[in-house]
């Protein structure tokens, strides 16, 4: 291997791809990046065995070759170099790095030890609108579980429904759902890890110029996403996803039209007082107003009154403040509809003019004296 690459481009790619490198790898080789130089340029690959990411970096290749090198050391080294051309060359089983007056030598591992990379099946790859896809994901990803106790809940379920595709995520305490028109039939019926999709959104936000994403399968057990010069492949989650349709309320006794920003400010304020009381926030709906309140013996209590358009019986319901803040932070519109049926049934949050999106939060059972 003998290549020349701009420090700026190399550092950008290394900073991006090292997000996939595990902090506590199952195998020592996973602490490394695989570098492959060919006529097409420099290919850098990282994997944690669940997700594999590959980036192409434009470079001048004088001699092809491949090698594995420590992800942390190479990234920190390149970050310390001046913004000039970096020369990478393999000599005597070591990677020699030079840039201006800087020189370094890194130990290497044979590329054959690196796990094989799955390949996207070209027949199943579809080009989709990047902004629409990422907007859909942002509306559901926060509801996926982070606890590995139930692996299926750490993913996003994708289901084809006629001309539309449904994306849903739940951690058992809340559920977020979006239906959109996107040509992703190859992904129908699968569960994609939320961590991998979060990385896809990050890649998309970093690559401003790209307007489309390529989506498809890599065999029966991997999904793939291509954003510009970066390809991300992730292992699908096996298991039976919960029958989420059954927990979506079909009726309600109270519906309120609420402005998002004042409500978000009220929840943030109440959350300060809710910290010492299991993050519990109360909503009281009555007489065209919503009162957001919280109290804790050590912290004190507060209440914020907001105007709202309310139809129905009204009443009180309590939620975990973190769940409310997660939803409100991802909700793009200026107003939302809130539906409830008593204090013990799930609360439903909907866009005003979109029947293809909803968010459900399970209530917290509280006594009247709390």
Q: What is the CATH class designation of the largest domain?
A: Alpha Beta
- Quote the distance from N terminus to C terminus: 68 Å
Beta content: 35-45%
pLDDT averaged over residues: 93
Counted up, domains total 3
Radius of gyration: 25 Å
Number of helices: 6
Which superfamily, in CATH terms, is the homologous superfamily of the largest domain? DNA Polymerase III, subunit A, domain 2
**CATH architectural group of the largest domain:** Roll
**Which structural class fits the helix and strand makeup?**
alpha+beta
Shape: elongated
Characterize the largest beta sheet: strand count, sense, and whether it forms a barrel.
9 strands, antiparallel
Percent of residues in helices comes to 10-25%
Contiguous uncertain segments of 5+ residues:
none
CATH fold descriptor of the largest domain:
DNA Polymerase III, Chain A, domain 2
**Using DSSP, what is the number of strands?**
26
Strand order of the largest sheet: 14-11-12-13-26-25-24-18-22
Description:
This protein has six helices and 26 strands. It is an alpha+beta fold. It folds into three domains: 112 residues, DNA Polymerase III, Chain A, domain 2 (Roll), CATH 3.10.150; 124 residues, DNA Polymerase III, subunit A, domain 2 (DNA Polymerase III, Chain A, domain 2, Roll), CATH 3.10.150; 112 residues, DNA Polymerase III, Chain A, domain 2 (Roll), CATH 3.10.150.10. The strands form four sheets. A nine-stranded antiparallel sheet has the order 14-11-12-13-26-25-24-18-22. The mean pLDDT is 93.
Quick rundown:
Helices cover about 20% and strands about 40% of the residues.
């Amino acid at each position: 291997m003998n290549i020349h690459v701009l420090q700026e481009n190399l550092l950008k790619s290394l900073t991006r791809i090292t997000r996939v490198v595990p902090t506590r790898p199952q195998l020592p080789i996973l602490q490394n990046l695989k570098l492959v130089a060919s006529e097409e340029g420099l290919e850098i690959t990282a994997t944690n065995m669940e997700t594999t990411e590959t980036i192409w970096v434009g470079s001048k290749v004088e001699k092809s070759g491949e090698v594995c090198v420590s992800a942390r050391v190479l990234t920190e080294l390149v970050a310390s170099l001046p913004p000039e051309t970096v020369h990478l060359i393999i000599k005597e089983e070591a990677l020699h790095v030079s840039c201006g007056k800087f020189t370094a030598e890194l130990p290497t591992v044979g590329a054959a030890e690196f796990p094989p990379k799955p390949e996207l099946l070209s027949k199943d790859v579809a080009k989709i609108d990047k902004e629409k896809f990422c907007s859909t994901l942002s509306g559901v990803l926060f509801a996926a579980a982070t606890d590995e106790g139930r692996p299926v809940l750490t993913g996003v379920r994708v289901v084809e429904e006629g001309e539309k595709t449904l994306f849903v995520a739940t951690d058992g305490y809340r559920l977020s759902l979006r239906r959109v028109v996107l040509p992703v039939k190859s992904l129908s019926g699968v569960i994609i890890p939320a961590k991998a999709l979060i990385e896809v959104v990050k890649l998309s936000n970093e690559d401003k110029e790209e307007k489309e994403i390529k989506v498809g399968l890599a065999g029966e057990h991997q999904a793939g996403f291509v954003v510009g010069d970066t390809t991300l492949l992730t292992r699908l989650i096996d298991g039976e996803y919960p029958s989420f349709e059954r927990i979506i309320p079909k009726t309600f006794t109270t519906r309120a039209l609420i402005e998002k920003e004042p409500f978000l400010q009220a929840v943030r304020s109440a959350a300060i007082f809710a910290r010492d009381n299991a993050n519990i926030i109360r909503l009281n709906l009555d007489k065209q107003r919503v009162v957001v309140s919280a109290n804790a013996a050590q912290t004190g209590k507060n209440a914020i009154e907001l105007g709202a358009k309310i139809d129905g019986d009204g009443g009180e319901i309590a939620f975990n403040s973190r769940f409310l803040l997660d939803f409100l932070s991802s909700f793009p519109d200026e107003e939302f509809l809130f539906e409830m049926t008593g204090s013990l049934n799930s609360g439903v949050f909907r866009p005003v003019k979109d029947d293809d999106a909803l968010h459900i939060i399970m209530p917290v059972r509280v006594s009247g004296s709390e």
